């Protein structure tokens, strides 16, 4: 089995920044589970910043409230 990293590509920051303006989620609704912390919260915030309406779900109800306050753009909906 070949374990070389030929399946992955290193992407430079300027390349990512050139892609983001074309990556929009306007008029899309997204559900993010495990959104109270870590990767789930980062995904939820990023999708909201890209124009999506984001419903965040997590078993840690108390910890998810900070997420809705942290998103400065987009809509995050608290789902208990």
Short description:
With 80 residues, the chain is α/β, with parallel strands linked by helices.
Spell out the helices and strands N to C: HEHEHE
Beta-strand portion reads 15-25%
Oligomer state of the chains in this structure: single chain
Shape: globular
Q: How many H/I helical runs?
A: 3
Tell me the radius of gyration. 15 Å
Mean pLDDT: 77
Describe this structure as you would to a colleague:
Helix 3 links the parallel strand 2 and strand 3. Helices cover 36% and strands 18% of the residues. The longest helix has 12 residues. The chain has a three-stranded parallel β-sheet with strand order 1-2-3, covered by helices on one side. The model has no long low-confidence stretch (mean pLDDT 77). By secondary structure, it is of the alpha/beta class.
SSE inventory with pairings:
Elements lengths: L12 H7 L9 E5 L4 H12 L3 E5 L3 H10 L4 E4 L2
Parallel strand pairs: 1-2, 2-3
Task: Give me some keywords for this one.
36% helix, 3-stranded parallel beta sheet, 80 residues, alpha/beta
